[in-house]
Amino acid sequence: MNHPYSSYSEQALMTLVCEQDEELAFRELYRRNVRLLVHTAIRKTGVKAIAEDLVQETFVKFWLGRHKFDIQKNIQAYLNGTLRHCIINYYHQEQRKQVLTLDDEDFLPDNVTAENLDFNTLNEFYEQSLLKLPEKCREVFTLSRKGYSLKEIAGLMEISEKTVEAHISKALKILRVEMKDYIALAVLMLPII
After folding, report:
1. How far apart are CA 193 and CA 190, in angstroms?
2. What is the DSSP string of 63-101?
3. Can you give the residue ranges of the HTH luxR-type domain (predicted)?
4. 8 Å CB contact between 22 and 30
5. Are 76 and 33 in contact (CB under 8 A)?
């Protein structure tokens, strides 16, 4: 099936999209670039559905920002850069969900393959991050990860349950910062197609 703009250069398509809000030209840009972007996203997330969502988000961001887009720029470079940011944001969100169970063996969700994140390296990094916590804070947090209740930890440490909660909250804040850098770095280090 012939697309109305299939013979147009990407530069011409960009002009139509950015200056005239031409949806069919946008669809043609999408058609030309979507497959490679999805392939890249699958290699970095391990799951097709997530990869497709991230690519959709990439194109939505492009469409919403089209009036500010410099049409002299290379569209592939722009889309790859935007996709990379979407993937990093995705890993940040996953990391925030997972930081509570970092010491569990099932930490890595099914969609993160061994190729993407080396569990042993991540676990090492987690252990190093734990050492950066103040001693009492680390003890409380470690007990909480081993399944002790707030009441049990309070009894063992001879502190109030509120203090236990405060230590756990402080530990999570510190670990989020520490682990965020690692997750972002891990994504950035993955090979680009």
Report:
1. 10
2. HHTGGG--TTS-HHHHHHHHHHHHHHHHHHHHHHHHGGG
3. 130-187
4. no
5. yes
Angle at 14 between CA 8 and CA 15, to 5 degrees: 90
C-alpha dihedral (63, 67, 68, 71), degrees to nearest 10 = 90
Quick: pLDDT tens for 106-160.
Answer: 444 444 444 444 555 666 677 778 888 899 998 998 888 888 888 999 998 889 9
The span from the CA of 57 to the CA of 45, in Å, is 15
**How many residues are given for the chain?**
193
d(CA 72, CA 90): 29
Provide the 10 A C-beta neighbour count for residue 177.
11
